[in-house]
Design brief:
Helix content: under 10%
Order of helices and strands: EEEEEEEEEEEEEE
Largest sheet: 8 strands, antiparallel
Number of strands: 14
Structural class: mainly beta
Strand content: over 45%
Shape: globular
Length: about 180
C-alpha cells in the first residue's frame, strides 16, 4: 500500500483520428490542427490548478519537412509555454518521421489564481530516420518555474513551431493524453 493514496484521471477526450498541421511557423496547436478535423481541446476550468496538482502529458505522431527547418515541440497552458525543447534541425526532406513527447507538470503554489506557479520537465524523442531516434530534454534550458493565469478557463495543449512555413512542413498528431495524478 502506498504511503498516501492517489488517483489518476484522464482529462482529455480520446483522440479518434489523426490531426494534421502544415504551413505554419507556430506555435501551432497540434490538437486543433490547421485543417478542420481537429480533436477536442482539453480545457482546464477556472481555479482548477491547486498546489500539489500533477499533470502528465504524452503525445506522439510524425513529422515531414522540405529542406532542414528547425522544429520545436512543447506543452502549453493557453498561450503560455510551460516547457519546450531547444529548436532541433530536422533531417533534410524528412518523410513521416516519428516523434513522442512526455512531460510532467507540478503546481508549486497558487498565491492567487492569476499567478499559479508551475514547473514542467520531460523529454522528446524525434526520428532522424524511420528506424533511429534521438532523445532530448524538455525544457531545453535550465529548469525554472513558469507562472500561469488560471483566472479563466484555458486549453492545455501540445504545440509545435516550424522555422519555415511550407505545405511540406507537416506535423501529425496521432494521439495524446493528459492525466491528473492527485493525492486523496
Amino acid at each position: 500500500m502506498p504511503l498516501r493514496q492517489t488517483y489518476c484521471n484522464v482529462l482529455n477526450d480520446p483522440q479518434l483520428v489523426a490531426v494534421t498541421s502544415d504551413t505554419f511557423t507556430g506555435p501551432q496547436d497540434l490538437v486543433q490542427g490547421t485543417h478542420s478535423a481537429g480533436a477536442q481541446p482539453c480545457v482546464i476550468p477556472v481555479n482548477y490548478l491547486k498546489p500539489g496538482t500533477v499533470l502528465r502529458t504524452e503525445a506522439f505522431g510524425s513529422f515531414s519537412t522540405t529542406g532542414t527547418p528547425t522544429l520545436v515541440f512543447g506543452v502549453y497552458f493557453g498561450t503560455t509555454a510551460l516547457a519546450v525543447n531547444v529548436a532541433l534541425t530536422t533531417a533534410s526532406g524528412a518523410a513521416t518521421l516519428p516523434w513522442r513527447l512526455r512531460t510532467t507538470t507540478h503546481v508549486r503554489s497558487t498565491v492567487s489564481n492569476t499567478a499559479v506557479v508551475t514547473m514542467t520537465q520531460g523529454e522528446l524523442w524525434y526520428g532522424t530516420t524511420l528506424t533511429a531516434v534521438t532523445q532530448i530534454p524538455i525544457p531545453g534550458v535550465a529548469m525554472a518555474t513558469v507562472n500561469v493565469d488560471n483566472s479563466s478557463a484555458q486549453p492545455w495543449a501540445v504545440k509545435a513551431t516550424y522555422s519555415a512555413s511550407n505545405a511540406s512542413n507537416i506535423v501529425v498528431l496521432h494521439g495524446w493524453l493528459v492525466e491528473e495524478v492527485t493525492q486523496i
